[in-house]
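Message: A physicist's question: would you kindly supply an amino acid chain plus fold tokens?
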Amino acid sequence: MSHSAASNDRERRAHRAAWGLLLAFGAACGGDGGARATGPSSSTSPALAAAAVSVVSGSGQTAAAGAALPAPLVVKVTTANGSAVPGATVVFQVTSGTGTVSPSSAVTDASGQASTQLTLGANAGAVQVTATVQGTTISTTLSASGSTVMPPTVTCAPAGAQSLAPGQATTVSGSSVCVAGAAGSEFVLEPFNTASDPGARAAVTVQASGVDPVTGVLASRAPVPGVSSDVVPDVVGAPAFRDAFEARLRLRRIAELTPMISAARGWYAARTSSTLRRSVIPGNVSVGTVVRLNANSDLPCSNPDYRGGVVVAVSGRAIVVADTLNPTGGFTTADYQSIATTFDTLVDAIDTRNFGQPTDIDGNGHVIMFFTSAVNALTPRNSDAYVGGFFDSRDLFPTRATRDLPACATSNVGEMFYLLVPDPTGMVNGNRFTKSFITRVTIATVAHEYQHLINSSRRLYVNTQSVGFEEPWLDEGLAHIAEELLFYARAGLGPGRDIDAPTLRSSTTITNAFGDDGIENFDRFGLYLQNTVRNSPYADNDSLETRGAAWSFLRYAADRVQPAAQETLWQKIVNSNAVGLTNLRQSLGTDPAALFRDWGVMLALDDVPGADARYQMQSWNLRSVFAMPNVDGSYPLRTTPVASGTPIALGLPGGTGAYLRFTVGAGKAGALSWNALPQDVLVTLVRLR
């Protein structure tokens, strides 16, 4: 394959898999815990050298052989004087006994901590895990052990067995269930951990008798007459560089910017029209004006990467700036003006109606879109994915510190975000991006980043009782809702319509809208469905799996709780002084734990005939959409076959569930039993067919 062909293939595949790097402040520094002050008047974070790594928690646990430990293994990296080291990579490795760690490496958070989950091997015995700071010889060890304690095997007779109709689900109390079989029947037993703490892992071990395993996909592609292919790109996995980039950006901003929030609010309250930095980009700026903007995405408040930018378009709500270092062969002035106009007429209308108005700290009445090759430079050479753009919260902070109050010296002091540019010859890192491709992905990128800008600016300067910025999972989930709302607007559709594959193929307008604005949510969600036992929709990260699950849950919850006025719900979530699950509880007006459990059951029962409405995704026919050949080709929910006499050991973090799949013959009864479970773990029996 020629270099050009490889580049085109990367573009085609990246359009499916790389939107997870539509980074934003929510991705970069959502959450309010563990912030580390940088000093009252300094805007520079010194580089911290790792000198030691120590065990924080998790060592010495015992669990059933084959099960995940109930709690993660946590270590802390510190300097020689004991200060926490954020942003260091810790590598975890099983060095004695049998077991697996996930992840195999993790980046330390603002408090210098990194964690992994150990799943014990099938054999009982001691296990040792070594944690090493990458690039050094600094290490420590943690221990665990596996036991052979299993729940008792239960048998039952058909006369006393639980009988379910296809599509029916029932919550199981106690520690076992007896299931009546039928010809062609298929069942799922789903334990779901509703604990609000995603780190609260529940060890679940299940035994079975009288059942047979069921393998294969839950739903595969159904042929559509007259349709030979789809026009959406193929699926690829998510390269690790994106998660590392996101984690680094988010953690550094937590450490550096959170201590400045109080000072920033004081600055904002005390400012007057004469103190606004109108000299940066005033509201009456004209096309052709040259400005200087910091494009450093690595360090928020130091080591600026100042770029010259030319104002190339001005609309009612947007000022578009093009980096003078951008590659040739990119957007024309007319292209930029078209993007600005689309922002005014489509994106701004959608995002402000659903999430609220952004602030206007620079007094120019516009949002600045900086198209810069600095974004292109974030994508490594020969990558299958790309960084599509980012919003940096540092630009919402003032630049001038006082003796008592810190500031961010390299802030651009304005509502803005940064966007990828066309690079048809691969000038930056050899990665070719055609103008047509960047044109397709830009508007959805803008909708995503604009939600982050609105969310962050309002939490800084409007909702001033807020404890801090929104937690990453919820802020990212809302940004992906913004993408979905853009799809609805462009396709002429809306929520609650159970959109399926035939609908998505019904017109060129709808097909193109899904390819540009809708399919990325399914990509991220599909990654989550492939490993529900390890990924929580409210995990303390902004991985693609977490984002996909968070988007899916928010869509399900809105359809279920507030189907008629969803704009009101989104605004409640954004304009809350609470964060995370507390915010969700207040905004939904109900405890989300039960909704999360029902959502988990929905993942197995959506669009199964006979299923109750609460187990349906009202807006999407998941099986139909995923079965499109260029989405996944089949419904990707991973299930675990259950076989009689073979125990299954699980470790479920808060917000996760497992799908144990089996069949029972006609006229027979099967039984499943499990160990004593925490009260947060709810077990549901589902009949699929």
